[in-house]
Design goal:
alpha+beta, Lipocalin, 8-stranded antiparallel β-sheet
Length: 108
């Protein structure tokens, strides 16, 4: 879905104003597979203290932390925001790239 400028501004404000969860997630809780579609999966992995992202048929990218739940990759112009629920689990992430916001639920 294409994000309007207002959508992106509201998304940024929600990210800043979001109340702190029960605890900050560790990198291991963020790792896993997140489905953007039936044939397109984002795989998030950890190596040491760094988080990496690989989408279907794409190379591995290092993600730089902006906060405990938001990571960016300047090389591909992508931003990932992990959703953390009240129990501290991560049910989904949102990918923002080229003005498009896409929610990807964790794949089972």
């Amino acid at each position: 879905m294409q994000c309007t400028e207002s959508d992106l501004i509201a998304w940024s404000i929600r990210r800043v104003l979001r109340p702190a969860g029960p605890s900050r997630p560790d990198l291991d809780s963020l790792t896993g597979r997140y489905a953007l579609g039936p044939n397109f999966v984002i795989t998030v992995s950890r190596l040491g203290g760094k988080l990496f992202l690989r989408a279907t048929n794409q190379p591995l990218f290092l993600m730089a932390p902006e906060s405990p739940t938001v990571f960016t990759s300047k090389s591909v112009g992508a931003r990932i925001e992990f959703e953390v629920d009240g129990a501290g689990t991560v049910p989904a992430l949102t990918l923002v790239q080229n003005g498009v916001c896409e929610r990807a639920p964790r794949a089972q």
